[in-house]
Predict the structure.
Amino acid sequence: MSTYLTIVVRMPSDEGAKTSINEAIRMLDPFCTAMSLEDEITVLEMIEQHEDFSDHIADDARIKARELHEANESLATMTALCKKELGEKSNSSFD
């Protein structure tokens, strides 16, 4: 299972509801890896459904996306380990 979650939100016209959604999205900032103001999911689904679209392109893109996510996970793990190591060294006392 992927550690990534994609959410598409239709922004309401009501200003109070927009404010609530924006506040909720801001709470996700520490975990956000990408954001868009356009619905790429729908666009990509429409491209995939086009009669001229070749299935091998989608299969190749999915493989490359999986590889990219795996590389990002590895980088995040290494970064966390480095921060932990640096934090432990900076918190150690000298006798």
The chain has a mean pLDDT of 83. The chain is about 65% helix and 0% strand. Residues 55-91 form the longest helix (37 residues). Helices lie at 15-27, 40-49, 55-91.
